[in-house]
Amino acid sequence: MDQRIIKTNAKEIFTKTNLPGADYVINQYVGCGHSCSYCYARFMARWKGYGNWGTWVEAKMNAPELVKNRRVNGRVFMSSVSDAYQPVEKALELTREILKNLDKGINLSILTKSDLVLRDIDLLKQFKNVEVGFTINSFEGEEKKLFEPGSPTNNKRVDAMKILKANGIKVFAFVSPIIPGLIDIEEIIRQTNKIADYYWFEMINLRGAGKEFSEILRQKYPESYEIVHDKQLFADYVDELRKTIKNSGVKTKGIEMH
Ligand code: SF4
């Protein structure tokens, strides 16, 4: 997909956040070529006015300079309104330059859907406290096209997770968005439990995903739509999910609910 790149400069690159498990976020990009239809950051498209989500990316070209000689206390998360390894990163290398310049004692957590992160293993290895998470959700075929048209496949993400792990880098699986009937949690755990150091699970946040995504779900997956809209059915689903996770014995930070 053609993507418009808007090059800007920022005043600050560490932003305070209320996200679970993080104190600061780094968003060297705003916007994302992975173009997930459920993306919770889609609201930025309205705010920025550059066009539909996925068609543009704002790149903060001075981000690598802004992290130089900076120390922040607490956990730093990359990124909250973009993916640090989205396609444009291949050419711009902002993430790579940031990793070069960051204080290697920083407590850094990166979440991505792309195996492009493998390019930076040499730098990741220099950090004392770094982890890389991969969004794993088993969407394939029609669902992959509808929900995550621009990102590498789940299999590529699992393979990348394996390679990072083999290189001594801590990895986690972010199982998200959990949509009843469309995600096989047991299969995901089977595929990743020898690799992932721990798991996050997250139920779909329909409000964050927006009306268009709700409409896709209603039209294409009415049974899933019904479960997420019916209090009792939803509670039963989450109960079952908790049991499945508990029985699997994997280490988890729990199920993120919204
Ligand atoms: S990869 Fe993340 S930031 Fe990018 S579109 Fe998908 S959900 Fe949004």
Please tell me about this protein's structure:
It is a single chain. The protein starts with a strand and ends with a strand. Helix 10 (211-220) packs across helix 11 and helix 11 crosses helix 12. The chain has a single domain (4-256), classed as pyruvate-formate lyase- activating enzyme, CATH 3.80.30. The radius of gyration is 18 Å and the shape is globular. The protein is built from 12 helices and 11 strands. The longest helix has 18 residues, at 231-248. The chain has an 8-stranded mixed beta sheet. 37% of the residues lie in helices and 22% in strands. It is an alpha/beta fold and 258 residues long. The protein has helices at 43-48, 63-67, 89-92, 94-101, 121-124, 141-147, 154-166, 185-192, 206-209, 211-220, 222-229, 231-248; strands spanning 4-8, 14-16, 24-26, 29-30, 56-60, 75-78, 107-112, 129-136, 170-178, 198-203, 252-256. It binds iron/sulfur cluster. Residues 32, 34-36, 39, 41, 82-83, 113, 151 line the site of iron/sulfur cluster.
Largest sheet: 8 strands, mixed
- Which second-level CATH architecture applies? Alpha-Beta Horseshoe
CATH topology: pyruvate-formate lyase- activating enzyme
- Tally the structural domains: 1
Shape: globular
Each distinct ligand: iron/sulfur cluster
- CATH C-level class: Alpha Beta
Low-confidence runs (pLDDT<50, min 5 residues)?
A: none
Helix content range of the residues, please? 25-40%
Mean pLDDT across all amino acids: 95
